[in-house]
Amino acid sequence: MSAGRHVPQAAVRIAHTRGIDLTGHSSTVVSVQLLKAADLVFVMDEAQERALYARFGRVRATVVILGDLDPSPITQRAIRDPWRGSDETFEETFGRIERCVAALVAILERM
Predict the structure, then answer these.
(1) What are φ and ψ of residue 26, in 5° steps?
(2) What are the tens digits of pLDDT across the range 19-42?
(3) Whole-angstrom distance, CA of residue 39 vs CA of residue 98
(4) Cβ contact 57:35 at 8 Å
(5) Is residue 66 exposed (0-12), middle (13-18) or buried (19+ Cβ within 10 Å)?
(6) Fewer beta carbons within 10 angstroms: which end of the chain, N or C?
(7) 42: β partners
(8) What's the pTM?
(9) CA-CA-CA-CA torsion for 97, 14, 81, 103, nearest 10 degrees?
């Protein structure tokens, strides 16, 4: 992945229906500096987790696969990358991310 990759229009549309503005967002490459500043790093699948450790070794931050927080019954830990997918694919992915983030917020509120 390269830095500066813009959000697909389908994602911009779907996010907008959820009150999120992604028009100015673009990708960022993970760096040592970003990892040093983080307490938690969320990845979408095990491959990203392995790549993070392979590239940077043991990081100070705790690495979490976001899909592990999904309160709904799941068949896989990974959150599907909707890149080049249909609006329906983006809807499904956004819905799963929202469920996982809501579960994270609930955990943090209990701390």
Answers:
(1) -145, 165
(2) 999 999 999 999 999 998 999 999
(3) 21
(4) no
(5) buried
(6) C
(7) 64
(8) 0.87
(9) 0
Alpha carbon distance 5, 61 (integer Å)? 25
Q: Which residues pair with 43 in a beta bridge?
A: 65
Instruction: Read off the pLDDT of residues 46-64 as tens digits, 9 standing for 90 and up.
Output: 999 999 999 998 777 789 9
Domain 9-109 grouped into CATH 3.40.50.2300 = yes
Written as six digits, the tokens of 78 are 């990974």
DSSP letter assigned to residue 77: S
At 79, the pLDDT band (50, 70, 90 cuts) reads very high
* Helix ranges (DSSP H) in 1-111: 9-17, 32-37, 46-56, 87-109
pLDDT of residue 1: 56
What's the rounded Cα separation, in Å, for the pair 99 and 58? Answer: 28
> Strand, coil or helix: what is 68?
helix
Amino acid at 93: T
